[in-house]
Amino acid sequence: MRKVGSGELIAGASGVLVLVAMVLPWYGRETDIAGAVVSESWTGWQSLSLIAIVLFAIGIAAIAFPLGRLLRATPERFRDDRLIAVLGLVAVVLVLFRLVDMPIADIDLQPGDSVDDDRGAGVWFALLGAAGIAYGGRRAARTGPRR
Predict the structure, then answer these.
(1) What is the secondary structure of the chain as a DSSP string?
(2) What is the CA radius of gyration of the chain?
(3) Which residues does 146 contact at the CB level (< 8 Å), separation at least 6?
(4) Domain count, the chain
(5) Who wins on pLDDT, 18 or 48?
(6) Is residue 83 situated within a structural domain?
(7) CA-CA 20 to 30 A from 2: which of 71, 111, 129, 145?
(8) pTM of the shown model
(9) Residue 49 belongs to a domain
(10) Which residue segment(s) compose the domain that 16 sits in?
(11) Distance between CA 114 and CA 107 in Å, rounded?
């Protein structure tokens, strides 16, 4: 068995964080219509379609990264650390895109009604996890090729 470095562990733990973030609320809305307040929230799985599947796959790959290193399941010349770093950057871009562009439908309001959209903890945890995957992959790549 091979010793797993800190980069691999960071990437694996960050992959777990991305998977956990997918079930946490990403977006919320509080609507006040004629004095009645309605609150709604959406998880990553509910509000994202293809992006949710891609983030899930990246999270699983990040978790498999230290396990593959530990069990020597990948070929010696395959640089899985660089692949994980690139996948982490892809995840960061996808989460940042969904931070800027919230996938919540608009509501037609009457005068006197109000709506307040916000971002939940899940999207921030996903961003942290995605950045951790990229950092962990990069840190593992900096230690040089596997022996």
Answers:
(1) -----HHHHHHHHHHHHHHHHTTSEEEEEEEEETTEEEEEEEEHHHH-SHHHHHHHHHHHHHHHHHHHHHHT-S-TT--HHHHHHHHHHHHHHHHHHHHHS---------TT-EEEEEE-HHHHHHHHHHHHHHHHHHHHHHT-S--
(2) 19
(3) 2, 69, 76
(4) 1
(5) 18
(6) yes
(7) 129
(8) 0.85
(9) yes
(10) 6-27+41-106+121-142
(11) 10
- Taking all residues of the chain, what is their mean pLDDT, rounded to a whole number? 86
Residue 13 lies in a domain: yes
pLDDT band at 77 (very low <50, low <70, confident <90, very high): low
pLDDT at 141: 80
pLDDT, residue 147, reads 47
In a domain, 115, yes or no: no
**Residue 119, beta-bridge partner list:** 27
Give the Å distances, CA to CA, from 66 to 6, 92, 136.
9, 20, 10
Could you give the CA distance from residue 15 to residue 55 in angstroms, rounded to a whole number? 9
Q: Cα–Cα distance between 127 and 95 in angstroms, integer? A: 6
Kindly report, residue by residue over 38-68, the tens digit of the pLDDT: 888 889 898 888 999 999 999 999 998 888 7
Q: What is the pLDDT of residue 74?
A: 65
Percent pLDDT > 90 in the chain is: 45
